[in-house]
Every structure is written in structure tokens, then in C-alpha cells.
Amino acid sequence: MSSDTSTDPDSRAQAQDAQALLASYMRAGYARIDPPVLQPAEPFLDLSGEDIRRRMFLTTDPEGRELCLRPDLTIPVSRDYLRSPQAGKPAGFCYLGAVFRHRQGAAAEFLQAGIESFGRHDKAAADAEMLALGLEATTQYGVSALEIRLGDVGLFSAFVAALDLAPAWKRRLIKDFNRKSSLKHDLEQMTLATANGSKEYQGVLAALAGSDPKAAHHLVTDLLSIAGIATVGGRSVAEIADRFLEQSALNAPTRLPRETRALTERFLSIAGDPDDAAGELRTLAADAKIALGPALDLFETRTGFLAARGVDVRTIKFSTDFGRGFDYYTGFVFELQEARSERPLVAGGRYDALLTRLGAKEPIPAVGFAASIDDLARNSAAGETKISGGAS
Known about the structure:
Blueprint: H1 9-27, E1 31-32, E2 38-40, H2 42-47, E3 58-60, E4 66-69, H3 74-82, E5 91-100, E6 109-118, H4 123-140, E7 146-152, H5 153-162, H6 167-175, H7 180-192, H8 202-208, H9 213-226, E8 231-232, E9 235-236, H10 237-250, H11 258-268, E10 271-272, H12 274-288, H13 293-308, E11 316-319, E12 332-338, E13 346-350, H14 354-357, E14 366-372, H15 373-391
Parallel strand pairs: 1-5, 7-11
Antiparallel strand pairs: 2-4, 3-4, 5-6, 6-14, 7-12, 8-9, 10-11, 12-13, 13-14
């Protein structure tokens, strides 16, 4: 028989704390939203990375469409925003609800509170507001010994764009940024210049290497059409052709110059507080004669807004190689972690490309974060226990 949590003082207190946090977000101007628990699985698999499949709860409807219990709320809130009359306009939403993911050593159902902000073009200010509101959650729960970890996918994208690399390799490096083992493998593969493509298609790939991209694309789509292929795994003929041509570029016998790899490794080794890191990045850009321009300006402006909000930027641990493991992040990313916790208590970032991938006709700036209510409450309780024990 399940227990009645309504009579459990700890459960009531946790529920009240969560509602108080949500109320603070509403007072900050964010409207409450509660997307359905059951969601189409495809957006999560396409946009969060296929490796999330093993952590999701999946089912199918009578028509065979794959559904899931929502593993996070960013994508569901984004989809609801795009279906609303506010789509394309500045709008902010907050939420408090259960999400479902297999987690080692932790409950698969857990409570999240968070904010998603859409359509704001003052990106540096919006980023700083998300981090500041995330910090308010830890303050409300009395969490101490907090570590602020910060990264910027946009800086890495700007750096890669400035390198003399084939477009396919640039896309590959940016895609693999959030997967450190994959990124390391990419750099090694490019340095060794091995051709590891499928032997069955090496002749075609070699013939296409270096050819005019448009002509090559037309050739591949024509060949697929002649063969009677319309779709494979949900991909259209055009998408199959793009993937085939990307493989041609990735397997071309071109070697990454060692100085380019050394420069990339130097970039990825920069860490420290945001002000110190910005200085090192400007030095690197000057030494290598590359332009990091707008991405670095945005980074420094964001730091200024954080300081204006009372955040001690000297305590922030910034690293150029820090990512969050989700494909949809495009810029600023952060995690707030307590020293004793194995998982971040609050995490989020900027995902400007997500809305177009969900169907928006024009790019829409977006940034947000989620706080784990269960972990915040657990760490708050642990802190209280430690304090009371030390005083006895």
C-alpha cells in the first residue's frame, strides 16, 4: 500500500518549497506551463542524441508512432510555445513537473522546476538572468559549497569556423563537442588521415572527393532515385545524399596539420574565471591570426551582466571544453553543483537552433535551465544534518 504523502511533514515541506520556487519564477515574469507527460519520442532522439534512447521510457500508439514519457521539459515547452499565438515573439515560461529517465543509483521519476525563455535578442542579459535565477534556487534551498561551472559552445563553433578545414569536418567537430571521447577521436583521425569508409563504396567516395558540391549532390540523388530509393530510416533522398557526401569529405585523404591540432588543443585547454579566460582567448586569437569576434564579445558582455547581478565571477569555473552532452546547445552552458553531489543541482544553457529544428520558419533565440527539486531538497537536508551535527 502506498503511503499518504499528504500527512508526511517532510513531503509537505518539500512540496511547499517547490511551489515557493515556482512562485518566485512567476513573480519574475515567467508564465506557468505544464506540457503533457506523454510526448512524441522522435524530437528527443533527433535533438538530444541517439544515446538518450537507452535512458528513455518508450512505447508506441496504435498507429505505431513511438512515444515516450518526457525525459526533460525543454523540448515539450519549446513545442508548446511554437504552437501558441506567442510563437516568434518574446515569451518566458516556468514549470514544475515530473520527468522520467533511467539514472544509475537514482529514481527514474524525479521533479524538475525550470525556466525557458524565447525570442529575446539581448542574449548576454538573458544568459546572465538564467544563471542568476538558477542560483536563486540553490539559495532558497540553503545549498552551500556550490560550484559554478560555465562553458560556451558558441566560442568553440566560432573557433572551428576560423580553421582551414573541410566543411564536413567542421560540422563533425561541432557535433562531437559535447562528447569528449568522440572529439578526441576526431582530432586523432584527422591527424592520422586514415581512410576508414565502407570498402563497398570507397570507389564512389573517392570519385566524389573534391568535386563540385552541387553537381555531386545531384549525381547522388539521381542514383538513389534510379534505384527506387525514397527514404531510409526516415531520411529523405536529399538527406541521404548529404550524409553520403559528408562521408566522402570525412574519408578524403587529407591530413590535419599538426599545428592546427596543437592550436585546437591549446584552445580546449583554456580554463579559469571568465575574465582570465577571455584574456587567454584574445591572446590565442591574436597569435593564430583568427577572428573570434562576436562570440568573444558576447562572452565578455555576459560576464559584465553576471557581475551586475551580483554574481562573483571570480568564483566561476569556466572551461572552453565544457559541454552538457545535448546536441541542441549552441552557446552559453552552465551547471551548479554542490561538493557532495554526483549530479548538477541546476543546469541549462542557450539553444538558439532548437526551434527551427522543431519547425519554426525563422531562428528564434532561446535559453533556459532546469533545477532538480529532489537533489536540491536532499542536499539541503544533508547540509542541515551536517550543521546540526557539528553544533552538538
